[in-house]
Amino acid sequence: MFVRCPRSKLSVWAALCVLVLCWLYIYPVYRLPSDKEIVNEVLRQGQEWKKNQTGIHLFRNLLKVCCDPRKMFAVTKENSPLGKVIWYDGELFHSRTVNNDTYPLFVQETPLQAPLKRCAVVGNGGVLKRSGCGRDIDGADFILRCNLPPLSKEYTEDVGTRTHLVTANPSIIEKRFQNLLWSRKAFVDGMRAYGASYIYMPAFSMKPGTEPSLRAYHALADSGSSQTLLFANPDFLRSVGGFWKARGIHAKRLSTGLFLASLALGLCEDVDLYGFWPFSVDLEERPISHHYYDNVLPFSGFHAMPEEFLQLWQLHKSGILRMHIGTCPSAPA
Ligand SMILES: *[C@@H]1O[C@H](CO)[C@@H](O)[C@H](O)[C@H]1NC(C)=O
Ligand SMILES: *[C@@H]1O[C@H](CO)[C@@H](O)[C@H](O)[C@H]1NC(C)=O
Prior knowledge:
By secondary structure, the chain is an alpha/beta fold. About 35% of the residues lie in helices and about 10% in strands. β6, α9 (about 210-220) and β7 form a beta-alpha-beta unit.
């Protein structure tokens, strides 16, 4: 026997509405252009590019207001004094208080004080293969790379050899170096490829990432390495995430490449991007591998690479940064 009660019916409808709104917020209904449409759009634009000094200043100011990259990108003694509670950006309600164990590991203040002239941000896309962009990349004043990419001889022509900052995901420490619980030699030797660069680790993003990051710090310090380990500041990662979310990126988490591009846009006069091409074909519609060094696909749904690409492409078209897709002009024929 059903008794009709308009009041409860109303609240069911209200609940449904809220659900639908939440759903739309998380999975907005809009259509991303297909890979082919994006390829065509990039081909239409061609090599045409003109620097937009006003746009560069405007964008740098936007980033300064939201995220203050210069002060905030790393955890420092200045922005994270003893007793400060660091809230993880990749976990709900997980924090760690800066204490006498961790505080001494932080740099005093953010390095990279001086204005940087031309920065090259190198993504690891398969489009770099046979690009001949190595010389172009090595000619930059500050070179940022993602996730400890291989820089061995066979790749030099395409990706260059110099590095000033390289990110290292704690999961790599776990997978490639047995979490540094056994030998640290392989790790320390492997890091030599990056010269005297900064190693940038998101140690306070996910709970399981902290211990491997701290071990990586000690492994480098104990070996007398000339490299400086910087811990990514979760406040910075969160604010940059919010900045791009407001501009329409709906991923759970930004890719490392977009974090680095944001950092470069906040710090450098000129920003060149290489290897940012998340599609399975190149501009001549030849199939390409996922990375320049392998074809291992990531989990789907975690990052929104085509969406990120379109944002960066927009900045390319307005002359705020320069994307290099395909071969570099200085490439040997
Ligand atoms: C330069 O950048 C500004 C800010 O993004 C933009 O409004 C303007 O259209 C750009 N100019 C050109 C020529 O693209
Ligand atoms: C931390 O180290 C400082 C200086 O070495 C010392 O004065 C302070 O008592 C220590 N604090 C704790 C909680 O151990």
